[in-house]
């Protein structure tokens, strides 16, 4: 089974299904999103969507009410296409700890979603994942996915590794290969058994090749669609690997174990 470990809700959802079909991808992990860049028809419209994205990455809009619409979109897409999508739910990180734990219980577990993410802590605020990891542990070790590209800093990645060591029963996935800090991300994930590295938005084939070589059982194919494309992301993985067990794990075997999609 080929599983794209990083996708966001598309409007309309058919655009996403078409992209997965073109890539020969069986299923995708689906995260909620407030920006919708696939709606943009020109540069001005795309700037508007990216302004929403910049706000999200900066920690703005941190209320459960602000997340509700995006969670509804995920739930609707998973309900309509349960054979193609594995739904995740996000929670606002700047809420008080008890409210974060309640949000995980009600907005993720209560909706029947399979994990938590994609979380986007503001730069220097990766420590706010700790109450999320505690809640994930309370619900059987739900996987947690955190944004890895800019504005995530190298210090944030080190904080995530420290948190993972404190909560070893919760799989913690760093997405986008850690962005510009990919070498440090590879080292941290390699040396932290509870961490995984998702490979979307990689800009160097050599980075993907090195990541897979260093952590073959904890690297995950992902596209970050609609920002990336499943066809291109799969081609990157296949150029960086050889046919066989390791490639199969990266393209879906590890994700199937980690995210437990329904059969």
From TrEMBL:
Transmembrane segment boundaries: none
Pfam families: Amidohydro_2
Keyword Lyase applies: yes
Signal sequence extent: none
Gene3D superfamilies listed in its UniProt record: Metal-dependent hydrolases
InterPro entries: ACMSD, Amidohydro-rel, Metal_Hydrolase
Key words, A-Z: Lyase
Domain Amidohydrolase-related: 3-260
Keyword check for Cell membrane: no
Source species, domain of life: Bacteria
The protein's name in its UniProt record: Amidohydrolase family protein
Native source species: Streptomyces musisoli
